[in-house]
Specification:
Number of helices of chain C: 10
Radius of gyration of chain B: 19 Å
Structural class of chain B: alpha+beta
CATH topology of the largest domain in chain C: FAD/NAD(P)-binding domain
Strand content of chain C: 15-25%
Strand content of chain B: 25-35%
Largest interface: C-D, 113 and 115 residues
Structural class of chain C: alpha/beta
CATH topology of chain B: Gyrase A, domain 2
Oligomer: heterotetramer
Order of helices and strands of chain B: EEEHEEEHEEHEEEH
Number of domains of chain B: 1
CATH class of chain B: Alpha Beta
Strand order of the largest sheet of chain C: 5-6-4-14-15-16-13-17
Number of strands of chain C: 19
CATH superfamily of the largest domain in chain C: FAD/NAD(P)-binding domain
Shape of chain B: globular
CATH architecture of chain B: 2-Layer Sandwich
Largest sheet of chain C: 8 strands, mixed
Chains: A mainly beta (119), B alpha+beta (204), C alpha/beta (416), D alpha+beta (1006)
CATH class of the largest domain in chain C: Alpha Beta
Number of domains of chain C: 2
CATH architecture of the largest domain in chain C: 3-Layer(bba) Sandwich
């Protein structure tokens, strides 16, 4: 399990936290007219990004605060942590070595071998 | 003297002491505990002497105030100090949107002290209790085995920690700590709730 | 395709094993195909095989970004069963189970289908109630399924701890005797070899970069090995369904999570059936090589890293040790992670999409392996006819806009 | 003769501490500090087991965790340990060990017949056979299973204890060889928190395998120098050395798993039950230094798997670390310089050297000179082509290579009982690769070395391709300094020791992956993986059949999939596969290094979290009383709730009937403390409640309570409970027992994420309150007697209201709510007074015949009233309308799940709806989970199912059976006949009814 920098408590073991889904999704009010499709889009559909995703976590064993985080879901690298209500910070683009984010010819769990001339 | 009608969650456990003072375990029962939720903006924090720095605690007016989160603190005081503390806080908080909740019985406190306290607790928590990282007076909410708990470093001459744990998890945690302390001489403790007999309606 | 037989084995034994042919070709991609299947796992290869065999469409490319069977096909714990709760699910898993029974012969490849029985344990009254409801539904659907009480569980699977003082005591469980396990690589290779023999091009090291459309219909794919024209594209990429769908701006009700598994060192036969426990999130069987094959729970965060936390493995093994105290001394030899596509109702998505010619098969969660031949079969029909196979119909994507979910949480081994 | 192969002196074993152990029933002696392998070798025993597939004899080949072949079963019955590496198991007094995978004996193994037929059972054999007719695999599989596997799993429960522990450190150094020692010391001197972990029993690594007569560091022997460093390191307060601890897994964010053997080296009788057998460490390190060394590669040639063939470096380890001669007459076969030192050391130790066979034309001239001085025969540009001796090597055939590198005619025999082999070295990059670092193929060392790091780690020494002692020490020290600096410490460069080495170090080599054979390829049996019995021929077959991806070839042949994870096999296999495909090794790629680096005991992975500690058992303040009064308990989530309170001689059903009757006829009492409780407070509390519940909350007056349903956004019922209005801004919410945590989390999520503008605070108070529920006509009477200051008369204290009051001067909250339809009072008191109040209730209620009842009676009582239990009558697919609770859904205003309720599928009329079922036969109790069908007979399968029975009981109060069920279009079927299935019996006829059976009974039940 990775470590997470709680914006309130500091760096803690990931087991103190719970994942709470994609961030920056606003709930359509039930008062507005909204199509079945749009509502299902809110309730069920996900972007399910492979790459940098804005997502919510809660420090469930610590301060119980929900917060946002930018994480590369393909590598589990956490790029930024920010509080609820804040806009995601700019982060460096993470170019993926191949469209799938992994070296060709292997699952992304496989050993990566450097090519000639690569440093 | 506490009310004889009162029983703490670990009343059935005797304090445990390992030989040579390696480690001791006891319940600090009946401490008055209140959770205050309030915005730290404005004067409240200053007036109430709330520790606003994360993971810290302060002692004030006979009570210990623990930082639990950016808008959440725990006030701890002696068993008989609860009423007064509540009244005093209520006075300060008059018109402010807040929540003050008595959790004296929701939680209890397990105190673990002695040379081996650190080594024993590290068997239970992913949190870094090394004295260089978790300083005296510091507080953290983290996991102990499979239960969440709050830990306070109360060391003076000897390592000493309080763990604040929910009533229903206290016995589990007590026994788990004892289990971890076996190599230093703590006796094994059998958790309550051993289930014997029929477990299934249709088996009857 | 030369058949494998006792004679060919004898001949090659004497010949120093020098005369075998290739199990499948290594073709270069053509300019155009009638159908392009994205994903060379067991489901994709099965789809290609049934398209070629039953629908006369053999001008097919199966595009695999790595090596075939290298995704979830090569990472799962190969449990086969069909004892699902709802009619819709029971139908597709039973369709698959019937095919598993004869697949070795059909593919001329021993997939080591071992019908050794699958036990699903109940640890409390609520679970027992749920399992009994399922058993009764199975019975009425004509699917074999029976309740064993704790004593019968012990008889059927002697290493299980049925002590009533266990932290999670075994109250009983359901047994599907026709359930079991098979050999994942063999299934992949068997389907690949059979599909290849029918003319299907299996193209490895070929990753799809983009999907091309015109007028709301697909026209082809862009790959790392060039462009390919096709009027029909089928995405069968367990774990990565959203990645492919996003190429067409389609959002799916799918979240991808790490799911881990492990094997122990090989030992002589120690457990002769499959045991699954929902309450403690673990499942176990023993491979023919002697390794205990153990599945753990999913990590709750979204993740494509094919890696979960060590804590999840530790939880699973604590549960295994609780259920099988004698396995505690054995050693974990290998651990790995896959990526599972999880739908909110724990049922798959099979069918058409709003883009004409783009078909999707995914969202199998932890339960995809057992469906392989059934999934491939009904998906091939759906692709060939542009209409869902009746068994596939309830699993269309539209069920989410209608709210007609097939909520199988209780039937999956791991509750999501 | 006792320990005939033990040298007169040398080694780190304790010669004053002899140990008796046994192998296959025969008793031997060794010394404390010996591994089983070194002790067996000291007694001249090489062959210890049989291989996986062909059951060929297997001996000790390595001197550590890399050994693919020397694995045995340790101990008996509950203490049995299958598949244990002899070269890792330390001996102790009374240790018993056994050969595995052979029957009836190690020497005469019936399954060795497999070897005779090996030509017919190549890789992939099973894919091609037993394909049909159906059932044929079932016939053969059991035999195949029995032949496979290695050791035997003990059937007894494991008596050992295990535990986890956690540490954080600045610098973690993995491997206490020369590089690791220097790294740890450098970092410790800088003041960093350092952990140095060593897989074996003591630090030193390869230094302990050096000839102490020829190597001196700062004037000390290698062992002496190591001791000095160890002592200094232990002197640093924040430095820790862990021995017998193997780093097995490198996970995200520098999280490393270590497995420490705590007791495995101790004799069984002295193992303390207070000390664990193994301890699993979770380390979170800011910086990691990998000093994991290198693994020597065996040579791949015909007959290379015979016992007595040993890695050259292992020979030196046995010689110097353990003081054991691995043979009396040795030959060395190599393609590199480092193995020559083995020949010299063996020779200097008195072993006769039959010859050094080097595949190269021109090894280092210094080596030739040294050999000449010792009178050792040298065969250059030569190979070994054949081995004789079945259970142990007796002789090796050496043949010259011709100009084309093929075997030339003409051969000579080398008589030997030991053949030291070396195919060069592979940096041990397993952990680096697990950390997701990228590997780089280095032609110079013909191996992969760390290329690009992914995590905060660095590799130093042999694991980084730096093989000489000087470079290991230098690189280790530098890595330690850098690591400490990266953690913010000022670290001065470390001084390196003065080294005096009589033996020049040479690492020149030529990689020869497949040794030229005198036989045609299909007749050559050259083993790549000694444990899995994979030969070059198998790799060829994989290639021939198109399994050309390295991963396919691995799976097809099972190369590298044994318990050694292919530590010695993989590099050779990759290189040979690459050559067959005409590719370079990096082009072919390699397979994944998976965790764990070496097998880890499952019990250790489970740690202390087993048995009673698998998960907490949560109990209420009154638990003690329940237990003392004979309650049977039902687990509800982690909680234990009293299920029934049987009296002597009573059956479960009798108890249930008695408890249920009492609660309606006089007075029952239930411990309801486990209900989830949440304190809700703030000016927007009402708005908040109106959004999370389906009904309206704006007008609920202080002193009153209301029942609420919570839905998910999908419109399905998730939880329910009663919430009381304390003041206009303050509410006391209750949830189901299981719902407490998820509801709290969902509500906090909504407040923090969705509606941060709402001024509401939440605090969980579940365990603050003990809850005692009095139920029955006499409950008011008892409540009146208990309460100091509240008249419980329903006239003044109406249903669905609550009051603050006192009992014995203690504050209580009393709720007039009921889950049974009966007159009820729920008394909430601070938990620490719960037991006192319960006992008081029991005492004062005695005159009413007060009867404690458990969850089962509670379930029955609420079913009589037709109240639902979420999770039993709902399963995540029920809307309020499905539960016939449309009344609780407000007409206007949003709430969680509202919009979903108008999705088409959720509006359909023939959805499954909750109804009552009354059996025609009032004595018949339907089975929960039974299905509802429309016809009196099941008919052909599949049988159309209309729904299922969710709750079913015999109601003593109504004198008949009652059931609740969800039935398709149930709401429209009131009074209609249906049938409920019964396995083996005819379906039971039932009539659809409302669910409030109590109300019906007052109108007269059928």
């Amino acid at each position: 399990m990775f470590e997470i920098e709680c914006p309130y408590c500091g760096r803690r073991d990931g087991s103190e936290f719970s994942y709470a889904g994609e961030a920056h999704i606003s709930r359509p009010s039930g008062d507005e007219e909204i199509s079945d499709e749009a509502w299902a889009g809110f309730v069920f559909m996900c972007r399910n990004i492979k790459g940098v995703q804005a997502e919510r976590w809660v420090h469930s064993a610590g301060c119980r605060r929900f917060f946002n985080m930018l994480r590369n879901t393909a590598t589990d690298q956490i790029l930024a942590v920010y509080k609820m209500g804040e806009e995601p910070p700019e982060v460096e683009k993470q170019p993926l070595p191949s469209p799938s984010g992994e070296s060709l010819g292997s699952g992304n769990d496989a050993v990566q071998v450097m090519g000639k001339g690569e440093t | 003297m506490s009310d004889p009608r009162r029983k703490s969650p670990l009343a059935h456990r005797k304090a445990l002491n390992a030989p040579d003072g390696a480690v001791s375990l006891r319940e600090r029962a009946f401490l008055a505990k209140f959770i205050l939720r309030v915005s730290a903006d404005g004067e409240v924090a200053e007036v109430l002497k709330l520790p606003v720095m994360a993971n810290t605690s302060l002692k004030h007016n006979g009570s210990t105030i623990l930082w639990l989160g950016p808008d959440e603190w725990m006030f701890m005081a002696a068993a008989d100090g609860g009423g007064e503390m509540k009244a005093r806080l209520g006075e300060f908080l008059g018109g402010v949107h807040h929540q003050l909740t008595d959790v004296s019985d929701h939680y209890t406190v397990i105190e673990i002290s002695g040379r081996k306290a650190y080594e024993i607790l590290m068997k239970l928590t992913p949190f870094d209790l090394h004295p260089g990282a978790f300083k005296i007076g510091h507080v953290a909410g983290t996991m102990f085995g499979k239960t969440a708990g709050l830990i306070i470093n109360r060391s003076v001459d000897m390592p000493e920690f309080d763990i604040i744990v929910r009533w229903s998890m206290a016995d589990y945690l007590w026994c788990l700590i004892a289990e971890a302390g076996r190599e230093f001489g703590l006796p094994a403790q059998e958790p309550v709730g051993q289930v014997r007999g029929l477990r299934y309606r249709e088996a009857s | 395709m030369s058949r494998y037989s006792i004679f060919s084995l004898l001949r090659e034994g004497l010949n120093g094993q020098r005369g075998w042919g290739r199990a499948w070709r290594q073709p270069k991609p053509e300019d155009a195909y009638d159908v392009v299947i994205i994903g060379g796992g067991a489901h994709g290869l099965a789809t290609a095989y049934y398209l070629a065999k039953e629908h006369g469409i053999s001008n097919i490319a199966v595009l695999e970004k790595g090596w075939i069977g290298g995704g979830n096909s090569g990472r799962n714990t190969t449990i086969i069963r069909s004892n699902y709760l709802y009619d819709e699910s029971a139908a597709i898993y039973e369709h698959a189970l019937k095919k598993w029974e004869t697949l070795s012969r059909e593919l001329d490849f021993n997939i080591m289908m071992s019908h050794r029985g699958v036990l699903n344990l109940a640890h409390d009254e609520a679970e027992a109630r749920q399992i009994k409801r399922r058993i009764e539904a199975n019975r009425l659907n004509g699917i074999d399924s029976e309740w064993l009480d704790a004593r019968q569980v012990k008889e059927f699977c002697p290493p299980v701890n049925v002590s009533p003082s266990a932290r999670y005591p075994v109250l009983g469980g359901s047994l599907q005797r026709r359930g079991g396990v098979n050999r994942h690589d063999a299934v992949v290779w068997g389907f690949a070899r059979a599909a290849d023999a029918l003319g299907v091009d299996i193209i490895q090291q070929c990753e799809v970069i983009a999907i091309k459309t015109r007028g709301g219909a697909v026209t082809g794919v862009e790959t790392t090995r060039g462009s390919i024209k096709t009027p029909k594209i089928a995405s069968v990429v367990a774990g990565h369904s959203s990645v492919i769908a996003s190429m067409l701006d389609i959002r799916l009700p799918i979240q991808s999570h790490p799911l881990q598994a492990l094997v122990s060192e090989p030992v002589k036969p120690a457990i002769d059936c499959v045991v699954m426990s929902n309450a403690v999130h673990a499942y176990i069987s023993q491979s023919d090589k002697g390794e205990l094959v153990i599945g753990a729970g999913i990590d709750h965060h979204l993740g494509y890293s094919q890696r979960g936390g060590l804590n999840v493995i530790e939880h699973a093994l604590a549960a295994i040790v609780e259920l099988f105290p004698s396995f505690s001394r054995l050693r974990m030899m290998r651990q790995w992670g896959g990526i599972v596509d999880v739908c909110p109702d724990a049922s798959p998505i099979i069918g058409k999409t709003r883009v004409k010619g783009f078909f999707i098969n995914g969202g199998w969660g932890t339960g995809g392996w057992k469906a392989t031949p059934g999934s491939g079969h009904v998906f091939a029909h759906t692709i060939a006819h542009d209409e869902p196979h009746p068994i596939a119909a309830p699993f269309a994507l539209e069920r989410f806009t209608a709210g007609a979910l097939v909520a199988e949480h209780g039937a999956a081994a791991v509750a999501h | 003769m006792e320990q005939a192969f033990r040298r007169a002196r040398g080694g780190v074993v304790d010669r004053n501490s002899p140990v008796t152990f046994s192998f296959n029933g025969k008793s031997y002696r060794g010394f404390t500090g010996d591994t089983l392998a070194s002790a067996l070798l000291a007694n001249g025993v090489h062959m210890v087991g049989r291989s996986f597939k062909y059951h060929r004899p297997r001996g000790i080949m390595g001197a550590g965790s890399e050994d693919p072949a020397g694995i045995v079963q340790i101990g008996k019955s509950a203490h049995a340990l299958p598949n244990t590496r002899a070269s890792e198991q330390e001996i102790y007094e009374g240790l018993e060990s056994f050969a595995q995978n052979c029957w009836p004996s190690l020497k005469y193994d019936i399954n060795a017949l497999n070897d005779l037929f090996s030509a017919f059972i190549p890789a992939g054999f099973y894919n091609k056979t037993f394909k049909g007719p159906p059932g044929s695999w079932a016939l053969f599989e059991p035999f195949i299973r029995r032949a496979a596997g290695l050791g035997k799993a003990p059937p007894e429960a494991d008596p050992a204890r295990y535990e986890h522990t956690n540490r954080h450190c600045d610098v973690l150094v993995i491997g206490a060889g020369p590089a690791g020692l220097m790294a740890a010391l450098a970092a410790a001197r800088a003041g960093a928190r350092v952990m140095l972990v060593e897989e074996t029993a003591q630090p030193g690594g390869r230094l302990l395998s050096q000839n102490p007569d020829s190597l001196k560091l700062d004037g000390k022997t290698p062992a002496g120098w190591v001791q000095g460093l160890e002592a200094e390191l232990r002197g640093h307060e924040d430095a820790q050395i862990l021995t017998r601890a193997c780093a097995f897994g490198y996970y995200a964010d520098n999280y490393i798993g270590l497995i420490e053997n705590v007791s495995d080296h101790l004799p069984l009788p002295v193992r303390s039950e207070n000390l664990v057998r193994q301890r699993l460490w979770h380390i979170r390190a800011r910086q990691v230094v990998l000093t994991t060394g290198a693994i020597e590669r065996p040579l791949v040639f015909h007959g290379n798997d015979r016992p007595g063939i040993m890695l050259a470096s292992a020979c030196r380890t046995y010689l110097h670390r353990y003081g054991v001669l691995p043979g009396k007459k040795a030959a060395v076969f190599t393609g590199n310089d480092s193995a020559w030192a083995t020949a010299f050391d063996l020779s200097d130790a008195g072993v006769e050297i039959a010859a050094i066979v080097d595949m190269r034309k021109e090894p280092n001239p210094e080596l030739l000179e040294s050999a000449r001085q010792r009178g050792i025969d040298v065969h250059l540009h030569s190979v070994i082509t054949r081995i004789s001796g079945r259970h142990r090597i007796r002789a090796a055939l050496v043949q010259k290579l011709d100009g084309a590198g093929k075997v030339a005619s003409g051969a000579s025999a080398l008589f030997c009982d030991l053949l030291a082999v070396s195919g060069g070295w592979s940096p041990n990059v397993a952990l680096f690769s697990q950390s997701r670092g990228k590997l780089r193929y280095d032609e110079d060392i013909a191996g992969f070395r760390p290329g690009k790091s992914w995590q905060k780690e660095r590799s130093a020494g042999a694991c980084n391709g730096q093989y000489s002692l000087e470079s290991c020490l230098d690189a280790g020290a530098a890595a330690g300094v850098e690591a400490a600096r990266s953690c913010g410490f000022e670290a001065p460069p470390s001084r390196l020791p003065d080294i005096k080495n009589d033996r020049a170090q040479h690492f020149g080599h030529e990689a020869v992956w497949e040794v030229p054979s005198a036989l045609p390829p299909h007749k050559t049996r050259a083993f790549v993986d000694l444990q899995a019995d994979v030969t070059v021929k198998d790799l060829s077959l994989a290639q021939l059949e198109g399994y050309i991806s390295v991963e396919h070839a691995k799976r097809y042949t099972t190369s590298g999939m044994g318990t050694d994870q292919g530590k010695t096999a993989n590099m050779n296999a990759f290189a040979i596969l690459a050559a067959k495909q005409g590719k370079s090794i990096p082009e072919l790629g390699i397979t994944t290094f998976r965790q764990p680096y070496k097998p880890v005991t499952m019990g250790a992975l489970a740690g202390q979290h087993v048995g009673d500690f698998l998960s907490p058992r949560r109990t209420t303040p009154m638990h003690e009383w329940h237990e003392a009064n004979g309650a049977l308990f039902e687990p509800v989530g982690d909680w234990l709730r009293p299920w029934v309170f049987p009296q002597k001689g009573e059956s479960f059903e009798e108890t249930l009937m008695r408890e249920t009757r009492a609660a309606r006829s006089s007075l029952g009492v239930l411990d309801a403390s486990t209900l989830g409780k949440i304190d809700v407070r703030g000016p927007d509390a009402r708005v908040f409640l109106s959004r999370v519940y389906t009904n309206a909350w704006m007008k609920l007056k202080p002193g009153h309570c209301r029942y609420g349903l919570m839905l998910g956004e999908d419109g399905m019922v998730k939880d329910d409970g009663v919430t009381a209005c304390i003041t206009d801004e303050h509410f006391h919410m209750t949830t189901t027992t299981g719902g407490a945590a998820p509801v709290m989390s969902t509500l906090e999520d909504s407040l923090q994420t969705e509606w941060p503008e709402l001024q509401v605070y939440l605090t969980s108070t579940t365990e603050q309150w003990a809850v005692i529920s009095l139920c029955g006509p006499n409950s008011a009477g008892l409540a009146g007697e208990l309460l100091d200051d509240l008249d419980p008369d329903p006239e003044y204290f109406p249903f669905m209201s609550w009051r603050n009051a006192h009992i014995g001067g203690l504050p209580v909250r009393v709720f007039r709510i009921s889950f049974t339809g009966e007159l009820s009072y729920e008394i909430n008191i601070a938990a620490s007074y719960g037991l006192w109040l319960w006992e008081k209730v029991m005492q004062e209620g005695a005159k009413y015949g007060i009867t404690p009842y458990g969850t089962e009676a509670m379930h029955l009582l609420r079913a009589e009233k037709g109240y639902i239990i979420t999770g039993q009558d709902t399963d995540g697919t029920m809307t309020p309308a499905d539960l016939q609770m449309g009344w609780i859904v407000k007409k206007t205003g949003d709430f969680i799940g509202r919009r979903s309720l108008s999705m088409s599928a959720l509006m359909e009329e023939d959805r499954k709806q909750l109804v009552g079922l009354l059996t025609d036969d009032p004595e018949l109790v339907l089975k929960e989970g039974a299905h509802v069908i429309a016809t009196p007979r099941e008919g052909a399968k599949p049988v159309p199912m209309l729904g299922h029975v969710t709750s079913s009981y015999f109601s003593p109060n109504l004198g008949r059976s009652i059931a609740m069920a969800v039935v398709k279009g149930g709401a429209g079927r009131m009074g209609k006949p249906l049938f409920v299935t019964r396995p083996g019996l005819a379906p039971a006829p039932v009539k659809v009814s409302a669910t409030d059976f109590l109300a019906m009974s007052q109108e007269k039940l059928p």
